Amino acid sequence: MKKNRFYIILILLLDVFMYSCNEERIGQFPIESTAPQELIDPFVENLKGGATIHYTLPGDADLLYVKATYTLPSGEVKIQKTSAFSSSITIKGFSRSGKSIVELRCVDRSQNESEPIFVEIEPKDSPIFDIYNSFSVEPAFGGIKVSWENTESEEVLIDVLKKDNENNWSSIEKLYTSITKGIGFVRNQEAVESSFGVYVRDTYGNRTDTLYVTEVPFEEQILDKALWKEMRLCPGIEMNIWGAKSMNVLWNGITNEGTAYYLNDSQNGLNSFFTIDLGVKAQLSRFKFWGRSGWYFNLHHPKEFEIWGTNDPIVANSDPCSWNGWTLLTTGVSEKPSGPDPLAADKLSTEDKALAALGEEFEFSEEAPPVRYIRFKKVKTWTNSPNVFLAELSFWGKPLNENQ
Fold it and tell me: Are residues 82 and 179 in the same domain?
């Protein structure tokens, strides 16, 4: 029995060996050993943080790609390749302006490499320094506001630091962005004098110096949603039967499950609007809204809207269609980082998704009067649809007593 088992194992091993010998090689076998010719007449176009090297390709019929080898200021050796259908190659990752040498080789389909040619480049300062020089930092409600310009649309990280009571610095907010004009907020900070720092880092590890500022954030707090109450809709503005069955879905704390509060426009030409009793008189500072998950910046997602308010309970509880006694507190426009056109969920950029997941945020003017009752009025959706949907609302401000 043992002998038979030995022969069976031997036969199986031989089969595996034979199969391995006959298995086809993945990829192309070298078919010749002649190296391609070098690139012809290279010339350099220096860019911010890099350079584009233009050239004429040699006449080798089996040329596959051009390979550039260079060393970044960090000491990291990088290799960049571009196909034989291109007459230029762009390399990036440099920090401050300075001269550097790039080695260029042609590679054919048999992986033969040409003799190298060496090209001197002198990249301009990286775009991160333009971003750094454009920084504006100022106090905001519950924190600070950082503004910047990124004319090259460089993918960068803007890191916001804060010094604690023991004089240690730590990161409190990381803003990943590539938009040309950006605004970022750091919230949940106390209304006391604090030291902040801001710097820029790119995807290659280059970073700027740190801009240090001392600011006093404006006082605010999130309004207690347990006090909010639903108020009557204007007849003709209806809630969609397959949407949420109560307006309180707007303050249940759920922002990403796909449920939402739906309104249909009225038959008499009124845009959709609804009214909420915040339960407390407050000097409003800012608010956020969340769209329906899976339909961000599309379909019934608000594009343009208005926020109205009153502190008069008679005005708020009278004719639900009347606007007498209501004050326009602010207007807002939903802006998608990747551009103005509506996109399906699977086409949204990373920044689009991050913004929608965090909620779209808008501030009220300091001149806006204190109110207890607010109205959200849809002016336009992202697809000009007759409906509007929202998943959640949050308001911040300073609660007041009725005599203030």
Answer: no
Could you tell me if 102 and 123 are in contact, meaning their C-beta atoms sit under 8 angstroms apart? no
CA distance 397 to 404: 14
Is-contact 99 120, C-beta < 8 A? yes
Which single residue is written with the structure tokens 């920084």?
A: 135
Whether residue 34 is contained in a domain is answered as no
Please check whether residues 376 and 227 belong to one and the same domain: yes
Nearest to 108 by CA among 41, 46, 36: 36
Count: domains in the chain: 3
Q: Is the dihedral of CA 227, 238, 249, 386 positive or negative?
A: negative
CA atoms of 348 and 354, how far apart (whole Å): 10
- What residues are paired with 207 via a beta bridge? 201
**57 and 113 part of one domain:** yes
Residue 336 corresponds to which amino acid?
K
Going by C-beta distance under 8 Å and a sequence separation of 6 or more, which residues neighbour residue 52? 44, 45, 88, 89, 90
Do 225 and 311 belong together in one domain?
yes
Report the chain (404 residues): mean pLDDT per 10 consecutive residues: 42 41 46 90 97 96 96 93 96 96 97 97 97 97 96 96 96 95 93 97 96 96 96 84 74 87 70 94 96 93 97 96 97 94 92 94 94 96 91 95 73
What are the backbone angles phi and psi of residue 390, rounded to the nearest 5°?
A: -140, 145
Q: What is the pTM of this model?
A: 0.78
232 occurs within a structural domain:
yes
Tell me which of 86, 105, 121 is where a domain ends.
121
Q: How far apart are CA 343 and CA 347, in angstroms?
A: 6
What is the arrangement of strands in the sheet containing 181-186, beginning at the earlier edge strand? 136-140, 143-149, 181-186
